[in-house]
Design a protein that fits this description.
This protein is mainly α and 134 residues long. It has one domain: Homeodomain-like (Arc Repressor Mutant, subunit A, Orthogonal Bundle), CATH 1.10.10. Helices cover 76% and strands 0% of the residues. Helix 2 packs across helix 4 and helix 2 runs parallel beside helix 5. The longest helix is centred in the middle third of the chain and has 18 residues. The chain is elongated. The relative contact order is 0.09.
Length: 134
């Protein structure tokens, strides 16, 4: 490479790096991780990161393979599993992780895990009892 080609490449990396995009996406994911129990909308997430909601949606999907909404739902299901394992009731779990309707929570939980929240909890409690016996 010639000196000019090297300089153009160096300047291009500085001017057109993806650092800002990566920072936005990571900060958004961290915000979701810490506030999954709140009512998070794409408008709000884009507002706190000072970016277009459509741009944020594309970036998040590009880097994580799912939309912020899908990630939020997965995070809530993950946390609800933990709560159910720890003995929290299904209703308490539903509202603790940010769902507004017990019916929609139960349906979504069953879709994602293959089991209703109450069945999942019973299985987890019976497993923990078996582990205590041994």
């Amino acid at each position: 490479m010639t000196f000019y080609e090297t300089e153009i490449e160096r300047i291009r990396k500085i001017c057109y790096s993806n650092d800002r995009q990566i920072e936005i996406v990571i900060a958004t994911r961290n915000f979701i991780d810490n506030n999954y129990d709140k009512d998070l909308k794409l408008d709000f997430l884009s507002h706190i990161r000072f970016t277009s909601k459509y741009h944020l949606l594309r970036l998040f999907k590009r880097y994580y393979g799912q939309t912020p909404r899908q990630y939020l739902t997965d995070k809530r299901i993950e946390k609800s599993k933990e709560n159910l394992k720890n003995g929290m009731t299904v209703t308490e779990t539903c509202f603790a992780v940010g769902f507004e309707s017990l019916g929609s929570f139960s349906k979504l939980f069953k879709t994602k895990t293959g089991k209703s929240p109450s069945v999942f909890q019973k299985e987890q409690l019976s497993r923990s009892k078996l582990n205590l016996e041994f």
